[in-house]
Amino acid sequence: GVGQLTPDYLAPSRGGAAVAAGCDLCADGAAARRCLTCGADLCLFCCQAHRRQKKTASHAVTELENTKDCSQAGKPLFCPSHPTEELRLFCEQCDQPVCRDCVVDRHRQHPYDFTGNVIHRHGDALRELLKSTQQHMGTLEDVLGQIDDMGSAVRSRAEAVATEICLFASGYVKAIEVHRDRLLKQLEDLKVQKENLLHLQKAQLQQLLLDMRTGVGFTERLLTSGSDLEILITKGVVASRLAKLNSIAYNTHPSVDDGIQFSPQERAGQCCGYEVFGAILNKVVDPARCTLHGEDLHSARQHQLTGFTLVCNDTTGERMGRGGEAVRVTITHKDKRDCAVKPTVCDNGDGTYHISYSPEEPGLYAVCIYVKGQHVQGSPFTLMVKNKFREHQGVFHCCTFCSSGGQKAARCACGGTMPGGYQGCGHGHKGHPGCPHWSCCGQVKESSECLGGPPSDTSQRSLLRTVAL
Known about the structure:
The chain is of the alpha+beta class. The chain contains 8 helices and 20 strands. The strands form 6 sheets. Strands 10, 12, 13, 16, 17 and 18 form a 6-stranded mixed beta sheet that branches. A 4-stranded antiparallel beta sheet has the order 9-11-15-14, with no helix packed on it. Strand 4 (89-91) and strand 5 (96-98) form a beta hairpin. The longest helix is centred in the first third of the chain and has 55 residues, at 115-169. The radius of gyration is 41 Å and the shape is flat.
């Protein structure tokens, strides 16, 4: 709550023409002078009494007007837990000023020192953060200038392209005029899209710059006007704020370019029954229209290289026909947050991208495909990774009798037996599946995954050979 906030001891020094403080002794008269020895504000009556008393007669007293430009550096600050004790010490473990009673109470056995001994180290740390923030401010101002220049370039380029379009469209009468209007609308949409992206980036960077200026201004006032104790008290909050501002990532270049071009030779199809030419060569990828293709889109095997294809389309649903898009893929285990698959994205240069990966752990995964920071069509989706493909440990035979050379102890996973003490299967006898099969699991498909465990030692010894079928 509010009680947990760090007190702002610089507020009185920023108050300007605030209400005059009262006398610290009688609390009735207005303070006119200050005792520099004990730090008390005194009215004229109490000031005279202060000088008559033997204990305070030697104290230095000055006019209160002479201390207006100073902060409360000469005025002692008392401990909130022990109001009669002045804050003179600093607990290194708790990172806060303490009094003598705190050292023997809650901060017992904590390392501490006098505030005057630690202010240099903590003040230097704040100055380093301040210097780093000021460097970011300069960079941000340069980027904002570039954004303004780029905005003008986009508008200038759009106007130039509009002029080219108007000149080209004047020869085709009605058909060309319709085609011209269509191109101009497309150009306007493109210009608005680019300007909106620039405005969004500009607003974000301006807000970041404003936050940094506020933090820098407060920190500078703290370091120049605050006392050692005030700096130590507010150091934690100020350092945390500046560190957070410094950690914010931002793009140092405009988010779009002025790459708007008009090609009069480009075929534009039919318009009012006439074949027209001229198109704006600026396809913009639409993540919502990008599609995913592949047989292994939702299933994969452990330790097996798998992949699928991403097809990037523009706002009309047509393939981009070129590469270079910002494609990002994440594959994360749903039950094990620290288990993620690192995919490889291959740009084919024709608007398609091949994503390949090899999962280490089986289970259910969440797959996210981003183009320009946005989900594509069908993303996110789930991926089931099965256990590693199990190879057959037995033989693919017509029956146990043939593959073992007639051994009675040879067995088969199909469960077939023969009379006469034979424990394995034989042609036409009970349990035989009627076709060739694997001895380890009974599967009848040769190129299949083994469904059973490894064969026993007896079976391994008894399976001496495989008969050609």
